[in-house]
Amino acid sequence: MDSVGVLVWLSIVVTILSKSHADRNVYPSAGVLFVHVLEREYFKGEFPPYPKPGDASNDPITFNTNLMGYPDRPGWLRYIQRTPHSDGVLYGSPTSELVGKPTVIEITAYNRRTFETARHNLIINIMSTEDFPLPYQAEFFIKNMNVEEMLASEVLGDFLGAVKNVWQPERLNAINITSALDRGGRVPLPINDLKEGVYVMVGADVPFSSCLREVETPQNQLRCSQEMEPVISCDKKFRAQFHIDWCKISLVDITKVVPVHREKAEPGTGILPDMGEYKPPSETLESRDYFADFLITLAVPSAVALVLLLILGYSMCCRREGVEKRNMQTPDIQLVHHSSIQKSTKELRSMSKNREISWPLSTLPVFHHVSGEVVPPIHRDNYETTSMPLMQTQTNLQSQMQIPRQQPSGKWYS
């Protein structure tokens, strides 16, 4: 194995669960990429085989990882499994604050065929490093890779080898790997084998090479602003396997970064003074008299409502003007005129009920043409006399209508 391969294996911790049922201990370094592969082949032995011997066992297995005693993983640790028929991967970059503090990760495997589970514990013991953090850090965006493809040791080793040929550092480590989806990227369309993209951060102990500095030239900055690819002399060393977006490369020299010191907030407006530990009230509470609260809450509003009701009743009943007072305030000539109108109206109504009208034929008795009996009228006699008659009597019809007679000789008589 060449020096690049040895360097990759020293900087990347790739562990696989052993066949034993005991807890597994791993020892990653702070500030260095940690990768742990969950192999499905190991967990297949934990589940019963297929009923027919000789059948290929390809059970769909998914994994759930969480910090012991908590529902999720630590903030620095991520997990990905693309399909139930692929291996799961735990990866991340532990921080220096966790050095010397064992982290226990519970790994639960679910067999989607038999609905059985198997659980193992992974104990992560984070170790400190001498040169942490590395002063020069560069982050690359690789467009033709997914995060699980980049986490493979062979692919990541090839990328670190290409970076070492361009940068020429004495020490080179992979610091972190992040999917483009975690940075707000969109899921690509399922055409032309498009990839999600992945960000890879590496650190070295020597300044950036001239090739990496070319992206900061005004010409390349102008091309990036016009959404054109910049001209990088060392791009051909990556192009064969990795398509790098040079407009998204980030070069950080942490030795020149001014640390931000946060001053302790002084007690004042909006800031409570330090009162020590919180002391809850005693469990034995004293009894309280709620009679005063009752008076304020119910008695006072009821008294106000009663006063308003009395005022309203006095205004509606005691202040009402009767007919006598109205007549006293009305002029005599107006009262006489109004009285004469009422008398005339009553007189007209009484006269209209007593007027004589012709009885309709439907109300007169008729004789049967065979028996000679008198047949009662069709309608009752208790109809209103003020209604108009439906038909006039025969006498009125004869007096109102005369039919001329025609002589046989063709002469007319008056």
Mean of residue pLDDT? 78
Question: What's the arrangement of strands in the largest beta sheet?
Answer: 1-3-6-5
Percent of residues in helices? 25-40%
CATH architecture of the domain at 133-257, by name, is: 2-Layer Sandwich
- Give me the number of helical elements: 11
InterPro entries: Cadg (IPR006644), Cadherin-like_sf (IPR015919), Sarcoglycan_alpha/epsilon (IPR008908), Sarcoglycan_C (IPR048347), Sarcoglycan_N (IPR048346)
GO molecular function, one term: calcium ion binding
GO cellular component, one term: Golgi apparatus
Subcellular location: Cell membrane, Sarcolemma; Cell projection, Dendrite; Cytoplasm, Cytoskeleton; Golgi apparatus
Structural commentary:
Belongs to the sarcoglycan alpha/epsilon family. This is Epsilon-sarcoglycan. It is found in: Cell membrane, Sarcolemma; Cell projection, Dendrite; Cytoplasm, Cytoskeleton; Golgi apparatus. Component of the sarcoglycan complex, a subcomplex of the dystrophin-glycoprotein complex which forms a link between the F-actin cytoskeleton and the extracellular matrix. This protein is α+β, with helices and mostly antiparallel strands and about 425 residues long. Among the domains are: about 10-50 and about 55-130, Sandwich (Immunoglobulin-like), CATH 2.60.40; about 135-255, Alpha-Beta Plaits. Helices cover about 25% and strands about 20% of the residues. The protein has 11 helices and 14 strands. The strands form 4 sheets. It has a 4-stranded mixed beta sheet. A 4-stranded mixed beta sheet has the order 2-8-7-4. The longest helix has 28 residues, at about 290-320. The chain is elongated.
